[in-house]
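Troubleshooting log. The previous structure file for this entry was overwritten by mistake, so regenerating from the original sequence record. Sequence copied from the archived sheet and checked twice against the printout by T.R.
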Amino acid sequence: MAAVSPFHRSGNGFSLPTPQSDTSATPLSHASPALPSSAAPPVASQAEVDTAVGKYLRSIVSQEAAWDTFVERRNAVLPMASQLEQYQYIKGMFSRFTSLRTPPDLKGAPGVIITQAHVLRAFNLPVTWGDECKEVLALTGMYGRAGRRYEDPRVVAMLDEAPPISTGMQVKRYLTLLREIHGRWTVEHPHE
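Regenerated output below.
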């Protein structure tokens, strides 16, 4: 005769036996006390975890000299060359913090793996800003000053051009130009 397991197969895994399913079990003389809800640690929402990680990172970077420069420039109208420095700074923060874990005793986010979105949250930047940052840096490296593929004079000219209205509008114009150049280059060089 095969050994009988104290666990029973249920629809989605194993469960402890119930009094009806295990007739050999002796009845308990008293019911198990329920744990009060305050005994279980509250489960934080993802937004709360992300906020805790962002605040943790901000507490580190806001003590550094480069933080003040970054914040000051975020509120200014910058030529693209200066905006590229902003992007390089955030890229450096991505490299520095992404994939590290928060301290195990960090309130609200113990042992959480830090993502690029967490880094951006520390700077109050949307994820789209980070995506734009990576794309602009990659394409500028290909077609900007001393570009790996070639140096496009229109890209170089835009680097020092004063933005007509805002840095954000200048970034959009610059990125549109870079995408156009990249699209044309990939069509002309399909095997590279």
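Residues 167-188 form the longest helix (22 residues). Archived copy saved in two places this time.
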